[in-house]
Each structure stands twice: as C-alpha cells, then as structure tokens.
Amino acid sequence: ITTLTGAAADLNTAYDSAGISGLANEAVTLSDTTLAASVLNTLDGHTSGTIDASSINTLTGSAADLITAYASGGITGLGDEAVNVSSGTASTSQATTLAAATSGIVTVTISDGDLTTLDGLTETDNAYSITVSDGSVDAAALNTLDGKTTVIVDASSVTTLTGAAADLNTAYAANGSSITGLGNEAATLSDTTLAAAVLNTLDGNTSGTIDASNITTLTGSASDLITAYTSSGITGLANEAVTLSDTTLAVSVLNTLDGHTSGTIDAGTVTTLTGAAADLNTAYDSAGISNLGN
Q1: Of 37, 159, 203, 260, which is most buried by a Cβ count within 10 Å?
Q2: What SS3 class is residue 45?
Q3: What CA–CA distance (Å, rounded) separates 129 from 14?
C-alpha cells in the first residue's frame, strides 16, 4: 500500500491495529470535512508520507494542536478552512499565527486583556472574543481593537477613557453593538480645540466626569457652549477662548457666556444682536468679547 484514503479516525484505527503490519510511509488522502487537529496530528505521526487534508473545511481543537498541524511539513491542503479554538483560549500571538495560516475565519477566546498586547492582533474578519482588562484605555486603541473582531468587545473593566472626544464618541456609539460595558467612565480629553456640540454629546454618553482641562478653544453656538459650561459632568473649563458660530444672538446669552470664561469670545460671525440696551452696552463694553461693532 502506497496510499490510504478515508476518514482520519478510520486511518488512525488502521495504524494502531496490532493486526496490520507494513504501514508507516503511505500517502494519505482524507475525506473529513470537519476534524479535530489532535486527530490530524496523531495521523501525521503514524506516517512519513504526505497527508492531503484539502477536504477539510473546519479544523477544531486547542491553539497548540492547531498550530502544530499548520506547521507540519507532512500535511498539505490546509489554508482556507475555518478554525475554531474549541479547547481553551489562545494568546494574541497564537491567534495571529492561526489567522496567518488560513484565509478562513478564526473563532477563539483571547487570553490576553491589555491593549498593548492585543494591539498585536492582525486582520479584521475573525471572531476574537476579547475582554479588556485595562482600567484606563485610549479610545482610539479601543476602536482599533473593535475593528479587529466580529465579536463584541467586553470593556466593562474600563474606568477611564482617554483621547480625542471624537474617538471617545466613536467608542460610545459602538457600545451595545460591538462594544459592551461602557457608560460610566471618567474621560480625559486630549483635544485643545473642540466643538461644544461634540463635548456635549460626549457628556451625554457617560455618567462619569469629563476632564476638559486641555481645551484652549471651544467653538460653536452660544447655546451649546453654555450647555457645556453649566454641565456638572464637565470639569476643567473656565479660561478657554471661544469662537462663536451664531449669526443672530440674544445679547443676554452672549453676556452669560462671557461670564463663564476668562478667555476671549470671538463674536465675528454675529450680524444681529437683540436685547435690552443696557445688556447690549455690557456686551460692547466687555473686554472679553471681540469683533463686535458692526
């Protein structure tokens, strides 16, 4: 016999039989479509011949057994099958190795939880089950991780999100669909210039406190700006420059805004001011409001 064909379990039975001699170097052609990697590896150990595993469309088992099968020089025909790490978990390194070995979807629970290590995951269409263990997480890194798996990322251990408000809002927008566990984190912003509407959206996304002390310029409508300044969930504001987008504005609102920041308010877009003469004079006289007068 130079070639044996059939299911891996039947082939292993033949190789293990005390009543059959003369086997050890046969080529093997498998008929299995789903197979445990451990069974395939056992078969690989029985023959020095090449095993044609091209019939397999799903490989299962531990990460170690699966990697052994892919690394074997005695097994051919693998490379496009789905992989299911059905026994135990896999490290980021193991998951990356498996993803590189097949164009099929890799389904696995990742044992690592820190984003620094998880950054090593590659590809974007695999079913990686991930639980983030970091307490403080960069929102952009969390979003990148979210894009690397088709399975929901558990971020319930996160107590602080950092980064640009847009990245934080992206993470919160994914909460409940591809990310879970967000909603009460403290936030530390890295933005220096920010639209007040974006800041207010973020404020609505978390019950935690937002540290906005890095912001040097806030932009937007006076209404949105006052909402941000009066929010109990936002800290670190009081000395920002402000650039208004309003064209028509009640002067009382402008004066209220002027009282919230020691920075200069650029009212250059305002073409119409309304209100009491006394309030108008207050606005025109204020050293904190610029570009009024026409």
Answers
A1: 37
A2: helix
A3: 39
Tokens standing for residue 168: 């934080």
State the pTM of this model.
0.93
Residue listed under structure tokens 């020089």: 73
Provide φ and ψ at 84, rounded to 5°. Answer: -125, 110
Integer angstrom CA distances of residue 235 from 38, 116, 199, 213, 261: 57, 29, 11, 7, 13
Distance CA 174, CA 142 (A): 11
Mean pLDDT, the chain, rounded, equals: 98
Beta strands in 64-222 (DSSP E): 75-76, 82-87, 106-109, 127-131, 136-138, 153-154, 160-163, 179-180, 186-189, 193-195, 210-211, 217-220
Vertex 59, ends 58 and 63: CA angle to 5°?
A: 145
207 in helix, strand or coil? coil
Give the burial class of 29: count Cβ atoms within 10 A of its Cβ; 0-12 exposed, 13-18 middle, 19 or more buried: middle
Give the Cα separation of 28 and 11 in Å (integer). 9
DSSP string for 178-195: TEES-SS-EEEE--SEEE
User: What was the pLDDT predicted at 65?
Assistant: 98
Residue identified by tokens 């949105």 is 224
Q: Would you give the DSSP letter of residue 177? A: T
Measure CA of the first residue to CA of the last residue in the chain; give whole Å.
100
Q: Give dist(CA 157, CA 197) in Å, integer.
A: 28
Helix (H, G, I), strand (E, B) or coil at 146: helix
Instruction: Provide the pairing of β-strand 241-244 with 217-220.
Output: parallel
Q: For residue 294, what pLDDT is reported? A: 86
pLDDT single digits (tens) 226-273: 999 999 999 999 999 999 999 999 999 999 999 999 999 999 999 999
